[in-house]
Amino acid sequence: MSKTPHSQLFDVIVVGAGLAGLVAATEATASGARVILIDQESEANLGGQAHWSFGGIFLVDSPEQRRLGVKDSLELAQQDWENTAGFDRSEDDWARKWARAYVTWAAGEKREWLHQRGVRFFPVVGWAERGGAGAQGPGNSVPRFHITWGTGPGLLEPFIRAARVAEAKGQLTMLWRHQLDDLVLADGHVSGVRGTILQDDNAERGKASNRIKVANFEFFAPSVIVATGGIGGNLEKVRAAWPARLGTAPESMVAGVPAHVDGRGLDIAQKAGARLINGDRMWHYTEGIANWDPVWERHGIRILPGPSSLWLDATGKRLPDPLWPGFDTLGTLEHLRGTGYDYSWFILNRRIIGKEFALSGSEQNPDLTGKDIRAVLARARVDVPGPVQAFLDRGEDFIQSDTLDELVTKMNELSGENLLDPASVASVVAARDGAVENAFGKDGQLAAINSARRYLGDKLVRSVKPHRLLDPKGGGLIAVRLRILTRKSLGGIQTDLDSRVLDFAGEPIPGLYAAGEAAGFGGGGFHGYRALEGTFLGGCLFSGRAAGRHAGGVDARS
Ligand SMILES: Cc1cc2nc3c(=O)[nH]c(=O)nc-3n(C[C@H](O)[C@H](O)[C@H](O)COP(=O)(O)OP(=O)(O)OC[C@H]3O[C@@H](n4cnc5c(N)ncnc54)[C@H](O)[C@@H]3O)c2cc1C
């Protein structure tokens, strides 16, 4: 057993160098605490999932919204959150308090807090997760998805900078390839961590690394913060937690998160007495595509779709209203699981894909990630942006054709199941196209597109003018096979508003904190059943901040 020579010198141990861990560590050092931050991966993975993220941030009544004529308010956002979360369990008590506190923060201090740290936002606010089931249904009543200038890496920047400064001052020690295996308990207090030092590994960021043990370690401190992320990279765990209300777990899925999102940290916290709740609540997407250039195993990319693609299930039936692209993530997942197939289809054309397909992920948006204004403006001049064209050229889920008949034949070939009848797909397309001529009509999706285009942000960059899919000026037909893509765990370790971990009796476990996805972004699941989007990174900031401040300022001193 190798004990660190300076094992008595730390006030706080943070496990996990993702966004939540970095925020917690730097908040704790800012309170004067001496902190050690350990991570099972190599330094190449600094920042965890947030590095890969699109950097979408939920803000309420921001200057960016106001400039685009969006009228938002704390009351409207609280109402949207409650309707979306659908809290209905007694163990939701703390999650509900977290939700209220978080929305208040998002409508108040959050933007300024980030601004002071140098974070800026793209001026066009996105309208993610629109709902569509009425004012009291789930979803965002108004656009709230603020894209960080620099995407995920841009959001991480100030926290990595602060960590480097604290490291240089000797306040923060970062240790890589240190895998937590156990929390050390003494008289009901958590007083340290135990684990395995793993063999060095040159694996690139995001790829699975070896688990070869070279030594053990033990560190002690009055406070330990668990920020180890969720379970989305462990497909077996996802299947095991799959709730019956979403049908059966898919046999075939793509992974939307890197290999390190393995869920082990949750089990370790549970072993130390932490109460894990809401494990059956998760946020997976139905618009996943296999990455043609995968980083991790079964790497999937999520399409953030504009509203115009025609969505068919595997047998060719159009999805019911309001399950249009970008409206209701879990409603769509639930519906598609009911079809008995693990995939569905978008049918669209080149004009739609060019304007309406955004791909989630920092590496899929080199212009925004690289803060390259010219390249961002150039998007408007090309018919299809480069990263989307790369999928058209090389993505295994993409099909192109000039005729619908041939397109459907190729779709059947790709699935190998021959489930699509060309005549019935043609009649679905014809019915949809026939409804385009008027700016009014009984087609719900077209009405929703017309309504979306009254929002300037959508009209400018996210939705094309309704037109016939078969219009020759549409630039050729496209079909995309959509798979289920794992992403976020909405449940996790139950915490109070100071990020203190609670046991089954609802009492804080002295010395133990949790933050970020491991804590269900706060309280063991502040989203409830569903998310408004852009709320995950923000949940890491908010809960990491609370954990770092409290552990660094309160327990570290006692
Ligand atoms: C492609 C992509 C796009 C996304 N886009 C958005 C978006 O636009 N908006 C949004 O709000 N959210 C988005 N998200 C979600 C968001 O990025 C994550 O929910 C968030 O970054 C999770 O951060 P975390 O710090 O809690 O966990 P993680 O980033 O998973 O970090 C956990 C760290 O803990 C380490 N660890 C785990 N177990 C152990 C152990 N036993 N011992 C030691 N170390 C351990 C891991 O190696 C990892 O470094 C996106 C995610 C992805 C992947």
UniProtKB/TrEMBL annotation:
<dbReference type="InterPro" id="IPR036188">
    <property type="entry name" value="FAD/NAD-bd_sf"/>
</dbReference>
<feature type="domain" description="FAD-dependent oxidoreductase 2 FAD-binding">
    <location>
        <begin position="11"/>
        <end position="537"/>
    </location>
</feature>
<dbReference type="InterPro" id="IPR014614">
    <property type="entry name" value="KsdD_DH"/>
</dbReference>
<keyword id="KW-0560">Oxidoreductase</keyword>
<keyword id="KW-0285">Flavoprotein</keyword>
<dbReference type="Pfam" id="PF00890">
    <property type="entry name" value="FAD_binding_2"/>
</dbReference>
<dbReference type="InterPro" id="IPR027477">
    <property type="entry name" value="Succ_DH/fumarate_Rdtase_cat_sf"/>
</dbReference>
<dbReference type="InterPro" id="IPR003953">
    <property type="entry name" value="FAD-dep_OxRdtase_2_FAD-bd"/>
</dbReference>
<protein>
    <submittedName>
        <fullName>FAD-binding dehydrogenase</fullName>
    </submittedName>
</protein>
